[in-house]
Every structure is written in structure tokens, then in C-alpha cells.
Design brief:
3-stranded antiparallel β-sheet; alpha+beta; 6-stranded antiparallel β-sheet; 50% helix; Transferase(Phosphotransferase), domain 1; 24 helices; 554 residues
Length: 554
């Protein structure tokens, strides 16, 4: 077959599309299986027509012909803004040859021009935006079971509006669901573009190549895009050697281009997540060109939303740096369905400590159950964030609370507040029924931790009347009492008529753990010995407890 003759005839004849004939302006280039022509369309923008014309030595190779037909089928069915689309398709008859073709939009250039372009802050941002969008296109292919296998800067077209299109799918492995004809990859098959080959493409079995080969190629492209040098090879310098700002991306490229496919990212979505997080830092540091706040805020949101704790910590630092401008975005993140995102947003708001955050952080305190044992607060750290606000704002927060919250949150919010004010705030909260207590907790415990002298009369009355005074609750709050009040509490407790074995065990433990003087301790031990001896209820460990008391008296 005479390829040059066929090209001449196509140029003179034009390409029939529906009822029109596309006039060929010039040949744009050729590859292994096709030739691209710039075509004029009456009343419309110029388009590109790609016609199947294999090299002379291969004539009409059946396998290459099927690949081209599959490429047409694929781009006709793919609907993604970053994957090239077929505008029309058909065949052109040249003598005895029936040559398939398809048309596509005219691109202003390819990613190759971006590689050679300027590296200033503005141009760097453009390069990275184009690359990330190209990743979205390849990820769309992968989601349909398609592995491109021939990714390189020349195969990422750029529209006049700066939109990248992943193109040249002629040697892609295409899933049977998308392609009109099945085409099995041969184990011995070798592709054309070794500069961006993954190791398994260069040295392995072609049937073993999967989507991670595309991830490898994209890592090479990213390296070249930033460094201006050919793709990654063994002992290639790290990106930080070209600019310290690029150091954040070294680990990303290392993982994308790992020799073993098992050590690469599992999917492009993971690459996109990590890149979107790191790019903001790169742009901020590159040549001192700090990005505008519109760049910082999207980066902040992506960092906080990350499933990686280290990235969420970076997001908190970004929020701390940009301050009040981050507050609205953080308020939105407090409503996330993910608890780790809500917690990170609350921590960030705590660092900023804006009064505007008060109602949002109060809302983040609430749980989704009325049972304390099942209570999982919407954001455990919301109380810690509120604790960073001025005292008057924190007291306002307690007044705003309209649903039950846990005592630990109350204590965090009121930490450092004068005892008298904190005490009154909690009393008001309790009167509204907004303190959610577990079975062993009591309001007295919370009050005594805030203002022990003021809480003591209520505690004494409760002990004497046995009103809401149970041994297991006394055991919890007695440690917060003064030594004098601990002694008085134990004396009243030991006078209860229906004291049970559990109470006796608790009192023995309290006495043995206390800082009482020896005479006071001995007095309690003697009383305990007598009460244990006369106790008539079931007491499984009576002898063991009595031995402990006797040993402590010696």
C-alpha cells in the first residue's frame, strides 16, 4: 500500500460527513495507524479528521484496523469534558480501500507546549490545573474499565479555552461493555512509546498491564511538566532540587512511578486527592508567589475533608494562617457526615476563636441519642473549641444550649470561668433538662467540680435524706471534696441503715486510698470491721474484705 498516494487522494477528494464534504486544509501529523487532517467546515469552526491509514509495510493490518474501529467506538460513547469526543464518523472510499475515520474538535495545542512553557507562578498554576483535569479524564476511562496505555504530553490535547482532552485511544485496552468489537491483547505485544512506559510494559507481559501503568505514565508527565526534563528514570533528581516549593510533590511522584505496581496508588482518585491537597502549598511557596485567598480556601476544604489525619492537621494550620476568612467554610464543614471532618473543623474554629462561630459550635455539641451510654457527640472537639473563646462568650454558649450535652463537655466549656458564674450556668442548664447523665453520674458531681464549697450543702442534704444519694454516685464525687467534707461524707454514709455489701466495699477502698491521718483512718477501719461482721445480706467476698481491713489496722 502506498500511504503517500492515499493521503494525496484524500486531500483532493475531501472527507464526506453526512451530506457535506469536509475540505482538507492541511495534514497535521501521522501515527502508527492514522493520519490527522485539519478540515474546514462551512459556517463552523475547523475540525480535525483522523483517518485510518497504516504505514506502507503493514498494508491494511487486520489487528490495527480493529484497534482503530474500537477507538472510534470508544470516543463516540465516552461523555466526559476531559476526554476527546467524536463529532462524526464514517468511511471514505479510496479505490479498493474503505478507510474508517472520525472527526473531533480542533485543539489549540498539547501538553507538550505547556512542558516547554514558562515556570512562573501564574504559568505553574495553569500547568497544574490542566494536569489535574487531565487526570479526571483518565480516571473516567478507568471507571469504564479502559486502560489508555499510551499516555504522553502529545496525547493530552489543550483546547483554546485551556481545557485538556485525553486523546489517541488507539492502543487502549477497551472493555467489552464499551467497545463494539472485542480485541484481545497479545502477551507479546509491545507498544510504541517507551519514554512513558511502566516497567511492566517495558519488561513484562502485555496482558498484565492494568490501570496502574497509566498512573506511572502520568507520574512521568507530572515530573516533566514541573522540571522541564524527560520522564522519571532511576536516580533522577528529586523535584526539590529544581525548587524547594516542589518538595511536597516528591512523595506523590515517587509513589506514582514506583517500579512495582503494587506500590503505586491503587486508583487515580487517590492521586487526585493527594495532589489537590499539596498543590495549594506548592503554589503558595513557589518563587514567593503566594496564591490568592481563593486558592487557599479550596485547599483548606480539601485538606480538612481528607481521610488522612496528617492532611487534616495541615488544613487546621491553613485555617490558623488565614484566620477569619476561613470561618464560613469551616462552619459548612461542621455539618459534614464524617466525624473526623467535623472534629478537624471544630479544632480549626477553636484556633481562630471567632464569636461568629458560637452558634455553630454549640450545635456541634449535640449528640444523636438520649441515652448517655450511646451518646456520640457530633463533634467531641466542639467543646474544646468553645473553651478558647472569651469567658463571656462561653457563658453565652451555655445559655444557648437547647439539647442535652454530656458533663465532660460542660466542664470543657467552663474551664477557667469563675466558680460562682460557672455554678449558676450549670444550675440553669440543669433546670432546662439539658445535662445528659449516665447511670453512675450525678448533677452533684458536676457541681462539686465547679464550686465545692457552694455544692457542699446540697451534697450533705442529699446524704442525710438519701435523696438521689446512692453509694455508687457518692463513690464518684467524694474524691472532689475537701478532706474535711470527705470525712463527714463517710460518717454519714456509714450511718445508713440499709447499707449494702457494695457500699461497704466502696468505703473500704476510699478509706485505704485516702490521705486521712492515722487516727481518722483507724476509726473508720474499726467501724467498717463491725459493719462487715454484722452484715446479714449476701456477701460473697466478706472474708476477703475483712482480711483487708484487719491488715490495714495492724
Amino acid at each position: 500500500m502506498d500511504r503517500k498516494r492515499l493521503v494525496r487522494q484524500i486531500k483532493s477528494k475531501g472527507i464526506p460527513v453526512d451530506s457535506k464534504t469536509l475540505k482538507i486544509l492541511r495534514e497535521l501529523g501521522s501515527g502508527g495507524n492514522g493520519v490527522a487532517f485539519l478540515c474546514e467546515v462551512e459556517g463552523a469552526d475547523p475540525v480535525v479528521a483522523k483517518v485510518y491509514i497504516p504505514p506502507d509495510s503493514r498494508d491494511l493490518d487486520d489487528r490495527a484496523f480493529k484497534r482503530f474501529k474500537n477507538e472510534i467506538s470508544l470516543i463516540s460513547k465516552m461523555q466526559h469534558p476531559n476526554v476527546i469526543r467524536a463529532l462524526a464518523s464514517g468511511t471514505i472510499q479510496i479505490g479498493a480501500y474503505s478507510l474508517p475515520f472520525y472527526t473531533m474538535p480542533l485543539a489549540a495545542g498539547t501538553l507538550r507546549q505547556e512542558v516547554a512553557g514558562s515556570s512562573g507562578p501564574h504559568h505553574l498554576e495553569r500547568k497544574l490545573r490542566i494536569f489535574v483535569r487531565a487526570l479526571l479524564g483518565v480516571a473516567a476511562l478507568h471507571s469504564h474499565g479502559i486502560v489508555h496505555r499510551d499516555l504522553k504530553p502529545e496525547n493530552i490535547l489543550i483546547s483554546k479555552d485551556g481545557v485538556p482532552w485525553v486523546a489517541d485511544l488507539g492502543i487502549a485496552r477497551i472493555s467489552a461493555q464499551l467497545a463494539t468489537t472485542g480485541l484481545k491483547t497479545l502477551a507479546s505485544e509491545r507498544l510504541r512509546n517507551q519514554d512513558y512506559y511502566a516497567p511492566e510494559q517495558r519488561f513484562g507481559n502485555a496482558t498484565d498491564v492494568d490501570h496502574r501503568a497509566d498512573i506511572y505514565a502520568l507520574g512521568c508527565i507530572l515530573y516533566e511538566l514541573l522540571s522541564g526534563r524527560p520522564p522519571v528514570r532511576t536516580n533522577s533528581p528529586k523535584l526539590r532540587s529544581f525548587s524547594e516549593a516542589f518538595a511536597l510533590l516528591d512523595s506523590v511522584i515517587d509513589r506514582m512511578t514506583a517500579f512495582d505496581p503494587q506500590h503505586r496508588y491503587f486508583c487515580l482518585e487517590d492521586v487526585l486527592e493527594e495532589l489537590s491537597i499539596q498543590i495549594g502549598g506548592v503554589l503558595a511557596a513557589h518563587e514567593g508567589g503566594g496564591p490568592p485567598i481563593t486558592t487557599d480556601l479550596p485547599t483548606l476544604v480539601k485538606l480538612i475533608k481528607s481521610s488522612n489525619e496528617a492532611f487534616r492537621q495541615q488544613g487546621i494550620e491553613v485555617a490558623r494562617r488565614i484566620g477569619n476568612q476561613a470561618v464560613p467554610s469551616l462552619h459548612d464543614l461542621l455539618g459534614s457526615a464524617r466525624r473526623d471532618v467535623r472534629n478537624s473543623a471544630a479544632i480549626a474554629l477553636g484556633h481562630i476563636a471567632s464569636p461568629d462561630s458560637l452558634p455553630y459550635l454549640v450545635g456541634a455539641l449535640y449528640g444523636n441519642t438520649d441515652k448517655a451510654s450511646r451518646f456520640r457527640p457530633s463533634a467531641d472537639t466542639a467543646a474544646q473549641a468553645l473553651a478558647k473563646l472569651p469567658a463571656v462568650e462561653r457563658l453565652n454558649a451555655i445559655a444557648y444550649i437547647a439539647q442535652p450535652i454530656r458533663p465532660v463537655q460542660v466542664l470543657q466549656i467552663l474551664e477557667g470561668i469563675p466558680p460562682a458564674e460557672a455554678y449558676e450556668a450549670v444550675k440553669g442548664l440543669a433546670e432546662r433538662g439539658h445535662i445528659l447523665l449516665d447511670w453512675g453520674e450525678s448533677l452533684l458531681e458536676l457541681l462539686v467540680r465547679l464550686d465545692e464549697p457552694r455544692a457542699w450543702p446540697e451534697i450533705r442534704q442529699s446524704l442525710e435524706t438519701r435523696e438521689s444519694a446512692y453509694g455508687f454516685k457518692v463513690r464518684r464525687y467524694i474524691k472532689y471534696l475537701s478532706l474535711e467534707h470527705q470525712i463527714e461524707t463517710l460518717n454519714i454514709w456509714l450511718m445508713w441503715e440499709n447499707i449494702d455489701s457494695y457500699d461497704l466495699e466502696n468505703i473500704v477502698n476510699i478509706v485505704l486510698e485516702s490521705n486521712f491521718d492515722s487516727l481518722t483512718r483507724l476509726g473508720f477501719l474499726r467501724t467498717l470491721k463491725a459493719r462487715i461482721q454484722v452484715y446479714r445480706g449476701q456477701f460473697r467476698d466478706r472474708d476477703l474484705l475483712r482480711q483487708r481491713v484487719m491488715a490495714a489496722m495492724d
